[in-house]
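Hallway conversation turned thread

IA: we were arguing at lunch whether anyone had actually written out Mannitol dehydrogenase family protein end to end. Turns out nobody had. So, for the record, here is the sequence (494 residues) and right after it the structure tokens. Reply here if something looks off.
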Amino acid sequence: MARQLSLKTLPELGSAIAIPSYAREDLTPGIVHIGVGNFHRAHQAVYLDRLFNKGLDHDWALIGAGVKPYDAAMRETLEAQDWLTTVVELDPHGLNARVTGAMIGFTGIDPTALIRTLIRPEIRIVTLTITEGGYYVNAKTGGFDAGHPDIQGDLSRTGDPQTIFGILIAALALRKDSGIAPFTVLSCDNLPENGKVAKQAVVGLARLLTPDLAGWIENEVAFPSSMVDCITPATSERERTLVRDTFGIADAAPVACEPFRQWVMEDHFPRGRPRLEEVGVEFVEDVAPYELMKLRILNGGHAAIAYPSALLGYTYVHEAMSDPDIAGWLKALIRSEVIPIVPMIPGISFETYLETCAERFANPAVGDTIARLCLDGSNRQPKFILPSVTDARRAGRPLNGLALEVAFWCRYCALTADNSSGIALEDERRDQLQTAALSARHDPAAFLALTDVFGDLGQDEAFFTAFAAHLKALWDDGARAVLKRYLSSQTLIS
């Protein structure tokens, strides 16, 4: 019989499961993490758990936080199991499980409760996983999107912030007034130069609220960038059953992830940091080259296989990767059009990194879904694919395959507008995307005219011509024929 996960039952879980070697009462908080989803619990929380198991830095425990309805649900679930999480690493050669205890609490789900926690002097770092689309970046300019309704809402409710950045500003103002040194803000989201993007959001909103405070934040608050990596599927009944039947643990919110895990960050923490280098974190002067490698090759690779795989009817990523046309398309696109425009990193082979990514995608134990890769395209494409297009245009390099990737996305958006397809488009711009994608069947410019996503890309003649030709072929001949034609052209080129 499975045992309910709790501090009380930890000693009863058996030797096959790694449990904390430290006592919960020995931990004190040093970090507030906003956005307690699966990725955070498979990544940052695991690194801290490993560190605490070494007997180090017990004053850097986590307090979870968030202000969205799903944060409230997570808080309720984790509170019932003493903030513990079962993490299963899905190694195809054999599963292993650990229970992590790095989180010792969770703020109330309202801005006031979060601000109260953020002003505590012992909180020296605030980390974020709020999704790539949560930073209010203007797609046209790359700057802060002051016109976003959420930001306008904070501006109209002076003293009652609802956005994460408004909350951070309010807490920093109180710390400043009380003579408490500011916390460091560390983004753990998949964004190029995510520290700069986080700073842009905080300072940008602060300038509109209180310009004097904005200057203080700009000068006194550290925003180091970091590159994070660990494929972590959503939790479903599949994962709960796996944990219960394989390891005898009744965990309402377990996390299953691949065994690969990477974290590279800039070492800029004025108020100190945990010694994460002791558990495999890489600290570097400039994380940008590592971020770019990961965003363009791994995240861009995920985007590349997402939409053709969906059009071909695949459910799981590993199933799609067993299709020679999908695997061939991934490697051909990244090798020919992405790797040549990514700046080299001394000692790093991009070809080896690509092969590692392909192996990770093909791991059947992970059970990652094509649907997960397809969601939120209007935020992910401008971060993972379109920058490669911009760089290829600037360098005068080929972009035929990148244009095909965008055409796959367009055709997918049109398909989801058909209820009989059984596929739902999960995107904040769903209606806009579907309408434009349907119109693009006869007027390809309609899709690229979404300038809040594509900027001026629709004005580029070479890209537009390639996109239009690929989209017509997808409607006329289908995804399989288009993939094979592209791969044949690559064979001729090579």
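OS: looked through it. The chain is about 50% helix and 10% strand.
IA: good, adding that to the notes. The first strand starts at residue 3 and ends at 4.
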